[in-house]
Amino acid sequence: MFAHVIRRGNSLLRLRAYDPYRRGPMGNLQEVRRLLTASSDEDNPSAEELQKLFKRVERVAVIGLSRFPEKAARRVPSYLAAKGYDIIPVNPHADRIFGRKVYARLADVPDEVDLVIVFRPSSEAGPFVEEAAQRPERPTIWLQEGILADTEVAAARADGITVVQDLCAFKVHRALFD
User: Fold this and answer.
1) Radius of gyration (Cα) for the chain, nearest Å?
2) What is the pTM of this model?
3) Domain limits of the chain?
4) CB-based burial of residue 67 (10 Å sphere; 0-12 exposed, 13-18 middle, 19+ buried)?
5) Are the CB atoms for 22 and 77 separated by under 8 Å?
6) If residue 140 lies in a helix (H) or strand (E), which one and from where to where?
7) What is the tens place of the pLDDT at every residue in 11-67?
8) CATH class for domain 27-177?
9) Distance of alpha carbon 65 from its chain centroid, rounded?
10) Residue 81 CB: number of other CB atoms within 10 A?
């Protein structure tokens, strides 16, 4: 976070804090609306709600974060980490990713998380949505582009949990803040 500071005589005045990655200008809401129309889920949050989501999120658990840099399940979390988000890797087949301890299951993550991003095939995504929905802090759940779990998503939404599905977090964030 950067602060604009000016000198007045012998005093320094701090004008305002500015986070260039998450607290920047309005971004391209029109582009996010276009991305939303391309998603197969008409019940996803609005462009404005997604913008507010990214502004309040700090800690992101990523289920299926890949060890392989060429995969989207590694590139998207890497991008979010570069933008200042605290990425918590969840993958039962790795010990360390991004130099961080990897948790085998979301239930093993001891810290509160604001957002859970799921990088698993649609055929496997449902149980991860259910597990995320059971967390006491009730994080937002995000299923990446092409990933759907309609039954479990409907149940989580009925319980008041915000869920995004079939939408790329990278594309949305980039449209809003880059």
Assistant:
1) 17
2) 0.85
3) 27-177
4) middle
5) no
6) strand 140-143
7) 444 433 334 444 445 579 999 999 999 999 999 999 999 999 999 999 999 999 999
8) alpha beta
9) 12
10) 15
